[in-house]
Amino acid sequence: MIQNNFTCSDNLSLINETKYSDEEYLIRVKLAATYRMIAHLGWDELIYNHLTARIPGTDYMLLNAFGMRFDEVTATSLVAIDMSGKIIDAGSTDLGINKTGYVIHGAIHRARPDILSTMHIHQEDSVAVACYKDGLLPISQNSFIIGDISYHQYEGISINAEEQQRIIKSLGPVNKNLILRNHGILSCGNCIEEAFFNLYQFVKACEIQVKMLSMVGGDVSKLDVPAKEIRDFSTRTAASFTAQGNGKKEWKCYYRIVEKLDDSFKK
């Protein structure tokens, strides 16, 4: 049913003229906008990588149609699949999905009901850190903000459903940030805004580490690592800020950029 009068509690300027409920349309718009944000930041990779969101009250998740650039994604082009990977709603294209999106993201959505959104990218510095034996080092405030990091060993391109249980085990029951060794990074959140905020801090931490290691010639003994109690204090403080808004202010500040540039993601 087309709904023209849509009052959005998130103070976004939206008119729902789609077949979707207001609640699903809002999730679709937020996710499509975040695809545009990632493209604007230069963290996309042709037609690859995935950002997903669960449709509240269902066992369906949304992800990008396989063939669209991130800057082309719209609310109605997103594909809805169930937790077995079956397409429930193909969206406005006939492109289907990339199976790796289901293998990685479907595993997490099925096992962690606390997670509404997952975001996986291959940004260059984050891949470099994923290839670094010591992983992400606790050297920047950004690395403290995101807290504990989980690691998953590389098993090749993720197309085998058997890997899902190992991905779930690697992430663990509470962590929301995962380094996929030799591959990339993944961040999660109890909403799209939190997942984006975690991903942003994750990438920044990786960028800082790559620059810092280049400055010291790879000699980690030259790095200034704050005491653990200071790092833990920063993590707890950042978590208290996130608990108040789940990254919503940060997400909205970037939403205003992509909306001003091109608001076609709402369609």
From TrEMBL:
Q: Which InterPro entries match?
A: Aldolase-II_Adducin_sf (IPR051017), Aldolase_II/adducin_N (IPR001303), Aldolase_II/adducin_N_sf (IPR036409)
Q: GO MF terms on file? A: actin filament binding
| Superkingdom, taxonomy of origin | Eukaryota
Where the record annotates domain Class II aldolase/adducin N-terminal, the positions are 29-210
Q: Which segment of the chain is annotated as a signal peptide?
A: none
Cellular component per GO, a single term: cytoskeleton
How is this protein named in the record? Class II aldolase/adducin N-terminal domain-containing protein
Organism this protein belongs to: Dictyostelium firmibasis
